[in-house]
Structure formats: C-alpha cells, structure tokens
C-alpha cells in the first residue's frame, strides 16, 4: 500500500537529511506505528505519502503509484484515498459534528443524500451516535478526535495516516481512540500512526517502525515501543538499501542496526 | 451539491470580509467609472464628428456694418463684390473642391441665430443688421480648407474666412485631453483595485486557512478550493462595474440629456442608451481584473 525505496528527503542542504535512504513497505490492511524522537522523520514520512513534499531522491509508491509521477491536478485524487488525523484535531469550530464530517464529502462533490446516509454511519463507527448536533467546543478532546477520525475515514480511504492522534489526550481517552483506529483497521484500512505514546504501542502490539535521525533503526512485528531484542551488528541497514527483495519478510522479527542506546 | 456548496462558501466569505468587499466594490466602481467616462467622451466626440462634419462648412463672411477687417475698409459689401465672390466660387478652379455652397443673407443669419439662442435674452438685443451675410461652403475634402481661405481672404468685401471644423477640432482636443485624464485616473484607480482585490483575497484565504487545509487533505479539487475566493473578488468587481454603469447612465440621462442638451440645443449629445453599450465592457473589464488578480494571489497564498 505504501512503499518507500531508498527515500531521502533533504530540507536544508547544510543539515542532515530528514529522511535518509529509507526503504519500507506497509501492506494493505496493516497497522503500523511510526515511533522515534522529535525530528526523527516521522512527519516527513507522512508528508511524503501525501505528496505534500517531494522526495529528494528515491521513490515513494502509494497504492501502487509512484507519487512523483502524479501530476498536480491528480494529487486530489491521491489524497482522497488517504485520510489524515492530527494531534490538534483541526475541526471547524463554527460547524457542528455532522457538518464537520459532511464537509469532507461536500468538498469532493458527494450528493446530499449520500452524505445524509454515510455520516451517521461513520459517526456510529467512531462512537459518537447522537452527538451530531454538538459543536466542537462542547465536546471533550477524545470526542473531538473521534470527529476528526470520522472526517478522515468518511470517504473510505484505503490509508489512514495519524500524526500523534493521542498526543493531546489522557491515557484512558487515548485507548478509546486506539480502539476506534483498530476498528477502522479491521475494516480493511491501512493505518499508519506516528506516536510518542509508549503505553499505547505496548498495549496494541502492532508492527513498530522506529526512526532515528531519518533512518529506520527498527522494524518489528507485534513489537513494543522499546526494543526487547538486544543490539546486534551495525551493518544490517545495508539490507534496506537492497530493498524488499529479501526472501524473508523484512518486517520480520529483525532488529535493525544501532538500536539501543540513546533511544530512551 | 457542489455548486450549492461553493455558493455557500462564497456567501460566508463575503459576509466575513464585508468591509473589505465593500471597499473592493467602491474602488472598482470609481475606477470603472473613470474608464467609462473616457469611453463616454470618445463616444461623444464620435457623435459630434458624425453630426458636424456633414454640416460644418467653410464660411466666407462678408463685410457688414462696422466691420473692422482690412478687406472691409470700403464699407459693407456691395452687391457687385458679392457677385464676384459667387462667380469665383462657381469657377472651375474653386468648384472642384466644393460640393455645393449656399448664400446666407443677413435675414437668414438672424433667423438661425434666433433658433439657436431661443432661450437666451441676447436674441432681443440683436438685429439682422449686426449679423454678417455669408457664403456657406460644403467642402469635398475638409482638409483643403487652406485653398479656399487663400483664394477668398483677400477678396474685396470679404471680412474673414472661417473653417468651422477648426473650431470643433479645438473642442475635440479639449475633450480628448479630458478623456486622457480620465484614462490616467482610471489607470491609477485600477492599480488600486487590483492591489485591493489581491489583499482582500489574501485576507479571505488566511481567515479560511483551516477550511482550505482540510479541503486539501480530503482531496478537494483545485477548482472547489479556489473558485469561492475567485468568485468573491469577481462578484465584488461586478457589483462595482454595475454601479459604474448606472452612474454613467445617470450622467448621460440627467446631466447630458436634461441639463446640457437644454443649454446647447444644437449639440448632439450621446443618448443614455448609448452609455449602456459601455456597460458590458465595464463588467467584462471588472471580471478580468478581479479574476486575474485573485488567481495570481491564490497561486501565491493558497497552497493546493
């Protein structure tokens, strides 16, 4: 669903790259956490998937398409296939819950009857039945984030990107949000979630991709926020360069190089 | 649905930005009024050219009582001198430049004078004797005036030869200058309008950056995102253009039609209907102005 091949993104020639030769594949229907310190490249990764930025080198494939080859007038179509959720919810304060979710459908020209049918259904999925008429400021943070998720998935995107969706929420509320994301994932949507929240990662036991200084330093299935596997040799990252042609699933229970120190 | 959505967005944008929208309307109104005024002056000039150039003639004024010109030293024109002028006009050397000519006697002149100044008290103080008799010549080519002038100015009994077209040319050059001034003012105001529209659109885009950000993310097309902003500017400009057209019509109707045409009954003024011909041009200009400036602004300030 999302494939990075030796992707490097340089914002500033003098500084180190935000992403440094990252190769990664996230399959359809997968749930992956993107972890790492601030500045490790998580947000850059998400921006590249959305074609908000152009990779300096390497290739980004989204749903089988090389995003570099998508002309600017086709970018909206790419983005219709991707839902995005942010830490700060980004709801429209003057619109109620229903209108906030409906907005995502209106702007891509969905008919009124489709909107009337779909929005309540999606609100139910995220657990907001009966709150259609509420304004965003009348909702708790967790509920606001549920509205944001509803808006992100109302057009049934194949991919949901979440950029620290629980960053503003308390642990209990966060788990509720994770439940919603998990449900969406089980409906077949690929979910990529960038997060700092170790409790959530440890609880969910999903695939974890750890970035550090723009490099993938760990990629484990059913993993924890911190690697449980001791550090091994330094040269494993070379495998990334050779791409996905390894016989074994590269997302296997392997540890990438230089894990360990400095990560906590 | 999409249309309705876009209209809703426009309405919201116009309401939120009301003061800026009003200023855009006023600035486009003023600038387009000046553009239109220049256009009206040109229409008026054409109208007068069409009306006068047929009628305007070279006039050979004959000496009257108390004429002081050099050719009139021997007193008022005699019948013999008058016949000489007429013969000369009919001679082949001169006739080839002339379509036809008429003799206007003192009494004819008095009659025309009374018609022209019927609502002026000066009529009462003028007698036929004070007005000179004249030959009115209709030229084949008005540019050949010089030939007539040279031929007749020195004839005995001729007071002066006047090319009436030159009187008009002076008037036209004043009107041309006025329309040039109007165009310059219009140009400055248009720059104002463009900058103001750009600023308005920028503010509008800024105040709605949340919405546009979300629209981008959910994959709204460029058209859906940008159209409300562009139409906002265009609508304001069209209202301004409509006001300008209305103003021009009012000027033509009330000032030219009711006031000036009474003051100068022998002048052909443009009709209010003619100014309405300018209206589509003004509206078109407003649309192009607003459309381009908002498009360029959006390209810079609204990422899609």
UniProtKB/TrEMBL annotation, chain A:
Keywords: ATP-binding, Cell cycle, Cell division, Cell membrane, Membrane, Nucleotide-binding. Residues 236-264 are annotated as: Disordered. It is a peripheral membrane protein. SUPFAM superfamilies: P-loop containing nucleoside triphosphate hydrolases (SSF52540). GO terms for molecular function: ATP binding; ATP hydrolysis activity; transmembrane transporter activity. Residues 2-238 form the ABC transporter domain. GO terms for biological process: cell division. Part of the ABC transporter FtsEX involved in cellular division. Has ATPase activity. PANTHER family: CELL DIVISION ATP-BINDING PROTEIN FTSE, IMPORT ATP-BINDING PROTEIN. Belongs to the ABC transporter superfamily. Homodimer. Forms a membrane-associated complex with FtsX. This is Cell division ATP-binding protein FtsE. It comes from Arthrobacter globiformis (strain ATCC 8010 / DSM 20124 / JCM 1332 / NBRC 12137 / NCIMB 8907 / NRRL B-2979 / 168).
UniProtKB/TrEMBL annotation, chain B:
Residues 184-303 form the ABC3 transporter permease C-terminal domain. Gene3D superfamilies: 3.30.70.3040. One of its GO terms (biological process) is cell division. Its main location: membrane. The keyword Cell division applies. It comes from the Bacteria. The keyword Thylakoid does not apply. Part of the ABC transporter FtsEX involved in cellular division. This is Cell division protein FtsX. The gene is ftsX.
């Amino acid at each position: 669903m999302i494939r990075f091949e030796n992707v490097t993104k340089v914002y500033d020639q003098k500084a180190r790259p935000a992403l440094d030769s990252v190769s990664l594949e996230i399959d359809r229907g997968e749930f992956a956490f993107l972890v790492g310190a601030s500045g490790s490249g998580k947000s850059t990764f998400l921006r590249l998937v959305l074609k908000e930025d152009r990779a300096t080198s390497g290739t980004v494939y989204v749903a089988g398409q090389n995003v570099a080859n998508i002309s600017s007038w086709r970018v909206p179509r790419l983005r219709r296939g991707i839902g995005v959720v942010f830490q700060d919810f980004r709801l429209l304060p003057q619109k109620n819950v229903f209108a906030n979710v409906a907005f995502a459908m209106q702007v891509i020209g969905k008919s009124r009857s489709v909107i009337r049918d779909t929005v309540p259904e999606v609100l139910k999925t995220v657990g907001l039945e009966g709150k259609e008429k509420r304004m965003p400021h009348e909702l708790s943070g967790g509920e606001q984030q549920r509205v944001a998720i509803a808006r992100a998935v109302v057009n049934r995107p194949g991919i949901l990107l979440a950029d620290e969706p629980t960053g503003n929420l308390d642990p209990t509320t966060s788990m509720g949000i994770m439940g919603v994301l998990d449900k969406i994932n089980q409906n077949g949507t690929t979910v990529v979630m960038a997060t700092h929240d170790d409790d959530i990662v440890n609880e969910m036991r999903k695939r974890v991709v750890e970035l550090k200084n723009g490099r993938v330093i760990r990629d484990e299935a059913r993993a924890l926020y911190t690697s449980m596997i001791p550090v091994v040799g330094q040269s494993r990252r070379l495998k990334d360069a050779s791409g996905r042609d390894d016989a074994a699933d590269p997302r296997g229970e392997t540890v990438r190089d230089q894990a360990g120190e400095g990560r906590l | 649905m999409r249309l309705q959505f876009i209209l809703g967005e426009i309405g919201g944008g116009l309401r939120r930005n009301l003061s800026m929208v009003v200023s855009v309307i006023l600035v486009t109104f003023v600038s387009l009024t000046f553009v239109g005024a220049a256009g009206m002056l040109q229409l008026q000039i054409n109208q007068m050219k069409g009306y006068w150039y047929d009628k305007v003639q070279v006039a050979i004024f004959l000496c009257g009582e108390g004429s002081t010109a050099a050719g009139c030293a021997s007193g008022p024109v005699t019948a013999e001198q008058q016949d000489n002028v007429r013969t000369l006009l009919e001679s082949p050397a001169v006739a080839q430049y002339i379509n036809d000519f008429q003799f206007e006697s003192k009494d004819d002149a008095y009659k025309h004078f009374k018609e022209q100044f019927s609502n002026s008290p000066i009529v009462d103080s003028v007698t036929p004797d004070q007005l000179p008799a004249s030959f009115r010549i209709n030229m084949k080519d008005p540019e050949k005036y010089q030939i007539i002038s040279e031929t007749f100015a020195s004839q005995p009994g001729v007071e002066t030869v006047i090319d009436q077209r030159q009187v008009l040319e002076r008037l036209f050059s004043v009107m041309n200058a006025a329309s040039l001034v109007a165009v310059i003012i219009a140009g400055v105001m248009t720059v104002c309008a463009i900058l103001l529209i750009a600023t308005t659109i920028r503010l509008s885009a800024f105040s709605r950056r949340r919405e546009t950000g979300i629209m981008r993310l959910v994959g709204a097309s460029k058209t859906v995102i940008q159209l409300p902003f562009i139409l906002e500017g265009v609508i304001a400009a069209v209202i301004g253009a409509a006001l300008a057209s209305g103003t021009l019509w009012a000027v033509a109707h009330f000032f030219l039609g009711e006031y000036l045409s009474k003051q100068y009954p022998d002048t052909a003024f443009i009709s209010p209907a003619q100014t309405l011909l300018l209206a589509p041009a003004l509206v078109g200009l407003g649309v192009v102005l607003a459309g381009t400036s908002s498009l360029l602004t959006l390209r810079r300030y609204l990422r899609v």
